Amino acid sequence: MAQDIYLLFLILFIALNLQSVLSWRMQNSTNDINSDDQCPPQPHPLGMCNSRVAAYGYPCEEYNVTTDDGYILSLKRIPHGLSNATGNSTENTRQPVLLFHGLMVDGFCWVLSTPKQSLGFILADGGFDVWIANCRGTRSSRRHTTLTPEDPAFWDWTWDQLADYDLPAVLQFIYNQTGGQKIHYIGHSLGTLIMLAALSDNKVTDVVRSAALLCPIAYLNRMKSKLILLAARIFLAETIHMLGYHEFNPVGLVAQELLGQVCVNPEVDCYDLFSAVAGPDCCLNTSTTCIFLQHGPQSTSIKNMIHMSQLVRKSSIRKYDYGNEKENMKHYNQTRPPAYDLSSIPRHVPLFFTHGGQDFLGDVPDTRHLLRTIIREHDSDDIEVMYMPDYAHGDFVMGYNAPQLIYKPMVEFFKRH
Ligand SMILES: *[C@@H]1O[C@H](CO)[C@@H](O)[C@H](O)[C@H]1NC(C)=O
Ligand SMILES: *[C@@H]1O[C@H](CO)[C@@H](O)[C@H](O)[C@H]1NC(C)=O
Ligand SMILES: *[C@@H]1O[C@H](CO)[C@@H](O)[C@H](O)[C@H]1NC(C)=O
Ligand SMILES: *[C@@H]1O[C@H](CO)[C@@H](O)[C@H](O)[C@H]1NC(C)=O
Ligand SMILES: *[C@@H]1O[C@H](CO)[C@@H](O)[C@H](O)[C@H]1NC(C)=O
Ligand SMILES: *[C@@H]1O[C@H](CO)[C@@H](O)[C@H](O)[C@H]1NC(C)=O
Ligand SMILES: *[C@@H]1O[C@H](CO)[C@@H](O)[C@H](O)[C@H]1NC(C)=O
């Protein structure tokens, strides 16, 4: 019995700690990963604006956005690129675009590499006013008007609240700051789910000009990652929550220790575990991956992980299930949590989808199901789907050929809408 519990923890931490696993592997391997790129020795001590964006000479502004439920989010802005500086971001005719990161990373993921490689810079140089969100719980957004991250209540949220509060607050803020311009949106992974949820609840349709969804995540029922399936089926996140944990901090000491024990075993290839969860990325450069690993992974709430595993176990997309009728009644006035009706997404919002054949999380059957639900309602001019057979989850944000294959057609889509 004790061994079973140990095993449960092990699987959870492995399944959800792949970045740390990979990082462990990199630090400890000499020949299996290109050794021409050296990982810098330390994580970036400074914020995104100081350490990355300014390093390439780009302007970078920081804002604090307070949500209706009191979280103070850090929002970054690259008002223009190098080639076309006006020097005055208040007098701005560029179209704003908001980048929203995925689960367990933060806004850093959009500026990981060089200006020619990373979407944040490419958009700024392409004539856009670039805004980069950091959701609650990530390194620069661990603030609240009354709570601290040590309070369990600080972690009492799931992606329902990201869709209800974080996303609308950030969009409304940008809308105000840019004098009422509608915003193009780009989300990756979890950043797509919250947009789909907010659009289906009609929360943000007035301020969104179009949305590009990279690795759309909504239905997770047929996802291919065996480790995550197992973790969901045995109610691992729920177990951890019952033990009194609220923050899911993937680089916590316990996790590191467990991983160390597993990966020391020569029969376990920790590098393969990364692929086992997210799918085998085709096109990552070591240098980019290094920066990614050293900056993350970022915290999220255990409750959010529970909500994600509810998606894996069920075929419909619903708000967080409190697990019994009485509690659901208390929160929702009905015994089952309300469902998100994705077919009610307004058809006048132009949507650009791109998904990968090797992605275990945004897997092909689930994504097809999502697309069928949405496309039926849309005009064909306003929807575009790009299928990348070789791409897995990380390639869409970090792939060295993503600028050519993904970002270029995406920008063209924005320019048409
Ligand atoms: C790398 O391997 C060494 C032993 O070879 C070990 O002491 C160290 O903890 C490992 N690094 C990490 C990050 O686990
Ligand atoms: C945002 O909040 C931080 C911490 O409270 C503060 O240091 C910073 O000056 C604020 N930034 C702006 C633009 O208000
Ligand atoms: C500068 O911006 C204008 C309008 O946004 C655009 O037409 C022009 O091509 C840009 N020039 C360069 C060098 O990027
Ligand atoms: C920027 O533009 C605004 C509005 O036109 C103006 O009030 C402000 O003085 C300008 N700032 C700079 C630094 O030119
Ligand atoms: C945006 O402006 C409106 C009207 O001035 C104001 O009511 C609202 O609070 C502002 N929202 C944000 C997020 O700044
Ligand atoms: C990334 O890798 C590709 C293929 O190996 C190479 O052509 C490219 O120059 C690399 N880019 C960077 C920024 O290292
Ligand atoms: C539940 O329904 C009752 C009666 O219709 C209403 O008064 C109450 O505000 C509702 N509560 C919630 C949480 O929606």
Automatic annotation (TrEMBL):
One GO BP annotation is:
lipid catabolic process
Q: Which Gene3D superfamilies does the protein's record reference? A: alpha/beta hydrolase
Q: What's the short name of a Pfam family annotated to this entry? A: Abhydro_lipase
Superkingdom of the organism of origin:
Eukaryota
Which UniProt keywords are listed?
Hydrolase, Lipid degradation, Lipid metabolism, Signal
This entry's Gene Ontology molecular function terms read:
hydrolase activity, acting on ester bonds
Q: What are the catalytic residues?
A: S189 (nucleophile), D359 (charge relay system), H393 (charge relay system)
Signal peptide range equals 1-23
Partial AB-hydrolase lipase domain span: 53-113
Similarity field: Belongs to the AB hydrolase superfamily. Lipase family.
Name recorded for this polypeptide: Lipase
Which source organism does the UniProt entry give?
Sorghum bicolor
User: What lineage, starting at the top, does this entry show?
Assistant: Eukaryota, Viridiplantae, Streptophyta, Embryophyta, Tracheophyta
